[in-house]
Design a protein that fits this description.
By secondary structure, this protein is α+β, with helices and mostly antiparallel strands.
């Protein structure tokens, strides 16, 4: 099978948020369709991005055009392997981010990388009053480039949605539309201090995906940004998510937020292009 009649993609594990990166060029209009077919073949894959390195910077475009911090780690690791980089900095152009995104990598013993991403700054951090099926609450909303996140803390009228998954998925779809954002996450956050647990639910309309993710980098960054602004002090949070722990450091004065995790490649696939032309 030649490269001309096949679609090549690699599957990565960034803290459990399993991500497929497609290396073969695919028209933007068809990317959500191809992504859906890849996820149908690999049910563990939660998101799909498209990568290439023919321009000044290596590029990552998510299937829905959103920003994804975990996929950014994957794309940095993918590029580092291509150029034989064991440790150092990779700067990428990423969908949903107006400025290039910097990722610092250090190779690990398992051939993966410890990765730290300079996350895009929040566009706005505020409070919104929302309603859903008889529930009403005022919740923190962090608007970011390419995606926004609602922080749902224990005690909120929406906290019970954490265990009512069908209702939560309807809610995130409804709120995404009413807020007019490109994508929306619900970050269910439990605990106080440096160690907290997070259960992420993420909806991206352009790719028609809604996932209870094993980890969410942009949502974790949003949680830290919200905490730093609320407490008016820099914070370092260890956020325990279903797939592992992400560490986020955020400073309210300069808006800098750095997120650290781990990423390794799981597998490589070469599939007939005709399989994606139905």
């Amino acid at each position: 099978m030649s490269g001309d009649d096949a679609i090549r993609y690699r599957i990565f594990d960034p803290t459990g948020n399993i991500t497929a990166l497609v290396e073969t060029p695919v028209d933007v209009a068809r990317q959500p369709e191809v992504a859906a077919q890849i996820m149908a073949v690999h049910p563990q894959v939660e998101q799909v991005g498209y990568v290439h390195d023919s321009n000044a910077l290596p590029e990552l475009r998510m299937a829905g055009g959103e920003f994804c911090g975990n996929a950014t780690m994957c794309a940095a690791a993918w590029y580092a392997r291509r150029i034989g980089l064991d440790c150092g900095q990779v700067t990428l152009s990423v969908s949903g981010a107006a400025e290039p995104v910097e990722v610092r990598l250090d190779e690990m013993a398992d051939q993966g990388y410890a990765a730290t991403v300079r996350m895009p700054r929040a566009l706005a951090i505020g409070i919104r009053e929302l309603a859903f099926e008889g529930r009403h609450a005022t919740v923190p909303l962090v608007r970011m480039e390419g995606i926004s996140h609602i922080v749902v803390e224990r005690g909120s009228a929406f906290w019970e949605l954490r265990n009512l998954r069908n209702e939560a998925e309807r809610a995130v779809r409804s709120w995404c539309e009413s807020l007019g954002v490109d994508g929306l996450g619900l970050m269910f956050v439990d605990g106080e201090g440096e160690r907290r647990s997070v259960v992420p639910l993420v909806y991206v309309p352009a790719s028609a995906t809604v996932f209870w993710e094993n980890s969410c980098a942009s949502g974790s960054a949003a949680v830290a940004m919200y905490v730093a602004v609320t407490e008016d002090a820099g914070c370092t949070l260890h956020l325990e998510e279903p797939g592992g722990t992400l560490v986020v450091r955020s400073q309210p004065d300069d808006g800098e937020t750095w997120l650290s995790g781990h990423v390794h490649q799981v597998s490589t696939h070469l599939s007939p292009r005709r399989a994606y032309n139905a």
